[in-house]
Amino acid sequence: MRLAELSERSGVPIPTIKYYLRERLLPPGHRISATQAEYGEGHLRRLRLVRALIQVGRMPVATAREVLAAVTDDSLDPHVRLGAAVWAIPHGPEPDGDDPATDTARRTADALLEQLGWRFAQGTGEQSPAYRMVVSGIATMVRLGYPCDVGQLLPYARSAAELAVADLDLVERYERGEEQVEAAVALTVLYEPVLLGLRRLAQAEESNRRFG
Amino acid sequence: MRLAELSERSGVPIPTIKYYLRERLLPPGHRISATQAEYGEGHLRRLRLVRALIQVGRMPVATAREVLAAVTDDSLDPHVRLGAAVWAIPHGPEPDGDDPATDTARRTADALLEQLGWRFAQGTGEQSPAYRMVVSGIATMVRLGYPCDVGQLLPYARSAAELAVADLDLVERYERGEEQVEAAVALTVLYEPVLLGLRRLAQAEESNRRFG
DNA sequence: CTTCCTTGGAGAGTGTCACTATCCAATCAT
DNA sequence: ATGATTGGATAGTGACACTCTCCAAGGAAG
């Protein structure tokens, strides 16, 4: 398959594909001659994943590159690779270390994880992006004057635990290996908007039930 | 309080506050003289909310303006206002109408809502942003070759329903009125990163339990 | 009073980042 | 042979959230 066909079948404009190639989000095609390269189904698949990460996951190009590098790194054990890929995924704004609200948030988060018995959640040694994400979110709420204590967060954490079970069930449908890692990344990222959308719909439904 | 003090207490640079004033994200201060204006606690509160919407919610300025306009619109009934504010909130990429994957996604979403009995979820007349968000997310997964049928989505929808109950419980702690609408907006937006972060942490925990 | 500093406001400029337009020489199709 | 197409490199575009610079009108210190 040539660049033009890759573009047609993926719906991504040719210059954009060239850009992704340049940024090493997409591996180069198999060179046929000095001016032609051949692309396979793997490229098509990878290209769609890239688009999903960038457009749906709103991920910066540099971050997407890291995630994809982890997905493809054959030198790692699949389980480790999965961890590395998901580890690289998001990370909004970093928690502001100078802010007392951040300290409060950190204590709340730690208490919550303690109560849930999530010992691996903070990551090994340094703190995981997910942990920082939670802390920074709580800190923002504290700053705005919303209480946001452990009791308030618990139902959210319990729902998150259910979600994780559903996630892992889906991931286990795939063969261990690159395919599974790719599925994990895709499902983690792509279910986010779906989940948030469903939450909004459920809110509307619940709101109507109570006040309607 | 003068602009300088507002800036110090909020941590937002003066030029940025001026920018928000220009963009009508922040109501103008009470003019004391031709060159001076006084700002109150309400301004500080609003300013922090603006930052939260833009930086945490990654919301474009224009969208934030709409949301805030709905929050402040005294001519509307609080319940309607709440709906209007949340309605305006985000909405990543629009579903691509020309794509067969979008049709599949729409059917899946409709079947899911049918099965759940969520009748208000699609919005009145036109489709709600949340519904479009869900459709576009499902379509992306279909395009990537992930099955994503009703059975697969159901556990997510059930968790979303639990989340909505928790959300509405929190919102009901506040007095009906602007305060409540503001709380609803803040909680909807600010709990998103927390929720997604908790999901990642729970995934790590669950993954460790299964493969660790 | 006068001199200096600060204030709020307005317009233009900056940085970032994902993408796109333009060229170019080599090569393929006819 | 010859015109179109390909992949690759370089530079440009557009959107957007700020941020800089200037200005005239007040206020404050001497």
In short:
Chain A is built from 9 helices and 2 strands, in the order ααββααααααα. The first copy, chain A, has 212 residues and is mainly alpha-helical. Chain B binds a DNA duplex (30 and 30 nucleotides) through residues 2-4, 13-16, 18-19, 21-22, 29, 31, 33-37, 54, 60-61.
What are the salient characteristics of this protein?
homodimer; mainly alpha; Multidrug-efflux Transporter Regulator, Chain: A, Domain 2; two-stranded antiparallel sheet; 9 helices; 2 strands; 3% strand; elongated; DNA-binding; DNA-bd_dom_put_sf (chains A, B)
Written description of the protein model:
2 copies of one chain form a homodimer. Chain A is mostly helical. The first copy, chain A, has a domain at 1-56: Multidrug-efflux Transporter Regulator, Chain: A, Domain 2, CATH 1.10.1660. Chain A has 9 helices and 2 strands, in the order H-H-E-E-H-H-H-H-H-H-H. Chain A has helices at 3-10, 14-22, 41-56, 61-72, 78-88, 100-116, 129-143, 150-171, 178-211, and strands spanning 30-33, 36-38. Chain A has a two-stranded antiparallel ribbon. In chain A, strand 1 and strand 2 (36-38) form a beta hairpin. In chain A, helix 4 packs antiparallel against helix 5 and helix 6 (100-116) packs across helix 8 (150-171). The model of chain A has no long low-confidence stretch (mean pLDDT 89). At the A-B interface, helix 3, helix 5, helix 7, helix 8 and helix 9 of A face helix 3, helix 5, helix 7, helix 8 and helix 9 of B. The structure holds a DNA duplex (30 and 30 nucleotides).
